[in-house]
């Protein structure tokens, strides 16, 4: 997928702005506030840039819905082909495209571009070869002082993963067994030679964690056969409710195992990002919130207990439990399904309860027939204790964030707020 670089110029040169007047209406493509007349239609900047990019190249996947896709509730298209089709239907034309706008000779132009490329600073994405699926943008409009975090590319990538299905064919006697194999495939044995020690977490590290977690959960769900049978829009809604709480529990299991094996100490946290193990000392960690708040991390402690204290207690509880891979898989499923069922209600609640019942039967089969544990009520109670601790932490965090929003602590907004309700 080609990912456009964010532009910080006040107005792209290829877009002709109509004079500001009350006659400008909403965008004829996405129905968001219009910005002017672009290529023969009243559009917003985003739709104009989209047409400028794809009006001739058509460099995107074919429509999966027989060219009958509509607008989503937030005004965003999930299908580029149908978006371009609408652009052309309302009269947008490529006649005014300017392909050779500079007056330099080709040799001079190439030399100028070469010199320009030398001046472009190396970003994390160019250094690691990892595309930026989360883009930190300017305010959505001139009157707003809120920065926008655009996660649309991230959502599209996760959607593609769910559509394509699992990377590797796995076979098991039931869904819990197959999900366990999928989890083992995604959770690699720590390679201590690749351990990186970091003392500061800022915008880049935060976005990298978001991106890795969403991709990891999406890949794991491709091994859940019953989940894959649901309609795609329902799967995406559930994924948005899954990823944060799933990653909390999965990271907790990683930290607990590392501390139990002596890989990291009590105040250290081990995280996994792609092929690297990240080691963090919570007593020495500097958290830079300047990209999202006017307050420092120390000042925000006013709103509640620092997170590391709770992590240490939860990690100790998980270490004492020492769940098997099957038990950890069940914990992840139960925690996520129960959470999204209560959050969304309606059809998702019905689906979640049905899937939980099926997985509970699989867990009973594991205890009774695989490891011959006839009495496992105490074991289940310990499992639910850990899950309840994670769930309570999410709810407490959500209450803190709502309290912070009252005081306008953060100056960022997400293009899809549903993905960050539980943060």
From TrEMBL:
The entry's localization annotation reads: Nucleus
Q: Does the keyword Nucleus apply?
A: yes
Q: Which residue intervals define the domain NR LBD in the entry? A: 178-423
GO molecular function list: DNA-binding transcription factor activity; RNA polymerase II cis-regulatory region sequence-specific DNA binding; zinc ion binding
- Transmembrane portions of the chain: none
* InterPro entries with a match to the protein in the record: C.elegans_Orphan_NR, HNF4-like_DBD, NHR-like_dom_sf, Nucl_hrmn_rcpt_lig-bd, Znf_hrmn_rcpt, Znf_NHR/GATA
Any one Pfam family here would be: Hormone_recep
Region annotation (Disordered) maps to: 1-20
A GO term from the CC aspect: nucleus
Enumerate the spans annotated as Nuclear receptor domain.
24-99
Which UniProt keywords are given for this protein, alphabetically ordered?
DNA-binding, Metal-binding, Nucleus, Receptor, Transcription, Transcription regulation, Zinc, Zinc-finger
Stated family: Belongs to the nuclear hormone receptor family.
Q: What is this protein called?
A: Uncharacterized protein
Q: Which organism is it from?
A: Caenorhabditis remanei (Caenorhabditis vulgaris)
């Amino acid at each position: 997928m080609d990912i456009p670089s964010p532009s910080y110029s006040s107005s792209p040169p290829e877009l002709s702005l109509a004079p500001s007047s009350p006659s400008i209406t909403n965008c004829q493509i996405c129905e968001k506030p219009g910005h002017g007349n672009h290529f023969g239609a009243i559009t917003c900047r985003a739709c104009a840039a989209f047409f400028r990019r794809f009006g001739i190249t058509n460099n995107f996947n074919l429509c999966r819905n027989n060219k009958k896709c509509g607008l989503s509730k937030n005004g965003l298209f999930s299908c580029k082909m149908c978006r371009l089709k609408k652009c052309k239907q309302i009269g947008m034309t490529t006649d005014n495209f300017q392909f050779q706008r500079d007056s330099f000779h080709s040799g001079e132009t190439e030399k100028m571009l070469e010199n320009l490329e030398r001046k472009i600073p190396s970003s994390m994405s160019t250094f690691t070869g990892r595309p930026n699926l989360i883009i930190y943008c300017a305010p959505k409009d001139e009157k707003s002082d809120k920065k926008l975090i655009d996660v649309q590319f991230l959502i599209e990538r996760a959607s593609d993963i769910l559509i394509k299905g699992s990377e590797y064919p796995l076979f098991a006697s039931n869904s819990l067994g197959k999900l366990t194999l999928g989890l083992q495939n995604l959770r690699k044995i720590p390679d201590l030679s690749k351990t990186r020690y970091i003392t500061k977490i800022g915008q880049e590290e935060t976005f990298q964690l978001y991106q890795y977690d969403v991709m990891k959960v999406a890949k794991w769900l491709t091994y859940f056969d019953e989940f894959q049978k649901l309609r795609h829009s329902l799967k995406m809604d559930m994924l948005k409710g899954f990823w944060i709480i799933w990653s909390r529990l999965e990271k907790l299991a990683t930290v607990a195992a590392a501390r139990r094996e002596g890989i990291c100490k009590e105040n250290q946290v081990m995280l996994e990002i792609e092929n690297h193990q990240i080691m963090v000392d919570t007593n020495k960690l500097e958290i830079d919130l300047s990209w999202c708040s006017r307050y420092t991390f120390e000042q925000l402690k006013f709103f509640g207990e620092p997170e590391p204290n709770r992590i240490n207690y939860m990690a100790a509880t998980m270490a004492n439990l020492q769940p098997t891979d099957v038990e950890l898989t069940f914990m992840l499923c139960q925690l996520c399904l129960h959470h999204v069922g209560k959050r969304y209600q309606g059809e998702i609640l019905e689906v979640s309860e049905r899937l939980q019942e099926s997985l509970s039967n699989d867990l009973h089969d594991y205890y009774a027939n695989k490891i011959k544990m006839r009495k496992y009520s105490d074991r289940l109670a310990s499992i639910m204790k850990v899950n309840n601790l994670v769930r309570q932490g999410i709810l407490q965090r959500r209450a803190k964030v709502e309290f912070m929003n009252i005081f306008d602590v953060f100056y960022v907004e997400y293009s899809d707020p549903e993905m960050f309700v539980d943060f």
